[in-house]
Design goal:
about 550 residues, alpha+beta, about 10% strand, binds flavin-adenine dinucleotide
């Protein structure tokens, strides 16, 4: 991806407003509940969204092919809004984007013009077929083959055989990008609906996103012409898929954010009405500070990381998959926190949350998928940990120490110095792991991935809070929270990150048999001292969320 300005603010706002309007009309709460209950994908509504009526798909297509040329920041904002409505519908729209990714990245100019042009003009739906029954996280185990068909000694086509599993839009797409093994390795092929030998199974009966069509695909001697090999070169499939992970994971991260916030906002509204113990639940600190505030804080932390990553991708930094680790951190945290927020929203509704009417149980079932597709949380932990571990080794431990120093110089009230503490602790935990050779334990490595995500996100949130205070947030940034509230959010999250890195770092390092050095290297006194003021900051965040008198918002 090269640098892109994306949509101007006015166009983005217009798209978000049109989306809200369209959805209010086509997919009100009651209809979504019915579709979920009956397990029906509203194909016509999805086609209307990706057609002339709304044209949401145009955001993802470059202007030269008839789209609006949105960037990663625009995609994050649109995906979050879509997910607030329904993550199943959002998945269906996203599947077209994902399906065209190999084309966007690896196709010839001719192929791009043809297929991206058709999506822009006709609103055709795509599906992305990578996963197989025995190849999920490990696509290297795939078995689907594409055998060259030769005419007069020249490759004129391919014969594809195999099976794809859990493909979004599987039985409703018009065109499919299918990953198959050629003699030179995995390669993407374009397969059109109706091709001889190509069929799909009945839609899956799923835990959530029941408005999204998910189906297995069968390819039995499906012949495609040689020009349907993406890029007209064999063996480039996996690298083409990996090049856009930074971008696509930002989009799925936004699903986690949208699902989490939608559930939480419903709980916030409910708690102002529901009276127990003589007063609305929103006035009970034991309720808000367990079920609402920590989740709002973590979701906004994830947002800070996503906005920073999307801005960098749009600035052209993500070329060749350069920001894949950042995409992984953003997706990991936003989806884990979105899922936890939805779970808390059920609890916040009590028995009503456990029934269907208030929608939070549906949102909880829906948001759960975001921790599985586009890289499971465990695979993301591994991706994050491996990359940052290399950075730690390459810089002889300076990677996080340097970053901590930059954060330590930030104003206290934006949470920078406490975020610095989190990264200082991370440097110590990594060093203890290096000395004790602890990453030979896969569990230690993956736990490091989690700690990296928290520590780096605390840094991003501190920078976002400082930018908000200086009136310097990106033009298209979400502005739900006023700068004073955002600073309180940042201080709460930074404290959590510092404590988590120190305590869990110690837990796993000592658990793997190397306690003594880390216990002395960690600035535990400062981490504990930094917790001072936590409750009053949580009060501030609660006031902001409920728009109360003493409000910081
Ligand atoms: C509703 C839905 C829609 C989907 N849409 C699409 C789509 O449109 N296109 C597409 O191609 N795919 C799609 N998928 C597939 C999805 O991307 C995969 O399910 C996902 O990548 C995980 O693969 P898997 O299910 O085979 O799980 P596995 O890879 O078998 O993983 C099972 C568990 O083991 C863990 N694990 C795996 N490997 C390791 C390891 N090395 N070390 C430690 N732990 C590990 C995982 O984190 C997970 O917890 C969809 C799936 C669903 C459910």
């Amino acid at each position: 991806m090269t640098a892109t300005e994306g949509l101007d603010r006015e166009t983005l706002d217009m798209m978000l407003a049109s989306l809200d309007e369209f959805v209010a009309e086509a997919l009100p709460d009651q209809r979504r509940l019915e579709l979920d209950h009956e397990d029906i994908c509203p194909e016509e509504t999805i086609r209307a969204m990706c057609g002339d009526e709304l044209g949401v798909h145009l955001v993802f297509i470059p202007e030269e092919y008839g789209g609006l040329g949105g960037g990663a920041f625009d995609s994050y904002r649109v995906c979050e809004r879509l997910a607030r409505v329904d993550i199943g519908v959002a998945t269906s729209v996203f599947a077209t984007f994902l399906g065209t990714d190999p084309i966007l990245i690896g196709a010839t100019a001719e192929q791009r013009k043809l297929w991206l042009g058709r999506i822009a003009e006709e609103g055709i739906l795509f599906a992305y077929g990578a996963t197989e029954p025995e190849a999920g996280s490990d696509l290297g185990a795939m078995k689907t083959t594409a055998t060259p068909v030769e005419t007069d000694g020249e490759v004129t086509g391919y014969r594809i055989n195999g099976r794809k599993q859990w493909i979004s839009n599987g039985s409703i797409a018009d065109v499919y990008t299918i990953l198959a093994l050629t003699p030179a390795g995995p390669s993407w092929f374009i397969v059109e609906k109706g091709a001889e030998g190509f069929s799909s199974a009945s839609p899956e009966d799923k835990h959530g996103i029941r408005l999204s069509n998910t189906a297995a695909l069968f390819l039995d001697d499906v012949e495609v012409p040689a020009e349907n090999l993406v890029g007209r070169e064999e063996g480039r499939g996996l690298s083409q898929a990996q090049q856009v992970f930074g971008y696509t994971r930002v989009m799925v991260a936004a699903f986690g954010l949208g699902g989490g916030w939608e559930a939480l906002d419903r709980a916030i509204a409910y708690s102002t009405e529901r009276v127990q113990g003589g007063a609305p639940l929103s006035t009970k600190q034991g309720y808000t500070h367990k079920l609402i505030v920590p989740h709002a804080v973590r979701l906004e932390a994830a947002r800070a990381f996503l906005e920073e990553t999307a801005t960098r991708i749009d600035a052209g930094e993500g070329v060749g998959g350069a920001l894949n680790t950042e995409g992984a951190i953003g997706k990991y945290l936003a989806t884990e926190c979105g899922n936890a927020a939805a779970e808390a929203a059920i609890q916040a509704h009590g028995g009503y949350g456990y029934t269907r009417e208030y929608l939070v149980e549906k949102i909880k079932r829906d948001v759960r998928i975001t921790m599985i597709y586009e890289g499971t949380s465990e695979i993301l932990e591994m991706t994050i940990a491996r990359d940052r571990w290399q950075q730690h080794l390459k810089t002889s431990g300076a990677y996080y120490r340097d970053r901590a120093q930059a954060l330590a110089g930030m104003p206290d009230d934006c949470g920078g110095p406490t975020a610095a503490l989190a990264q200082e602790c991370l440097a110590a935990v990594m060093e203890a792991s290096r000395v004790g050779r602890l990453t030979r334990n896969q569990h230690v490595l993956l736990r490091l991935g989690e700690l990296v995500a928290y520590a780096e996100t605390a840094g991003a949130l501190a920078r976002r809070a400082a930018a908000a205070a200086a009136g310097a947030l990106p033009d298209k940034a979400d502005t739900r929270f006023a700068p004073v509230a955002l600073a309180a959010i940042s201080r709460v999250f930074a404290r959590e990150a510092a404590l988590k890195v120190a305590e869990e770092g110690l837990r796993w390092v000592s658990g793997a048999g190397a306690w003594a050095d880390l216990a002395t290297a960690l600035p535990l006194d400062r981490v504990h001292a930094a917790q001072s003021g936590l409750l009053s900051d949580m009060n501030l965040v609660a006031d902001a969320l409920y728009g109360r008198e003493a409000s910081a918002a």
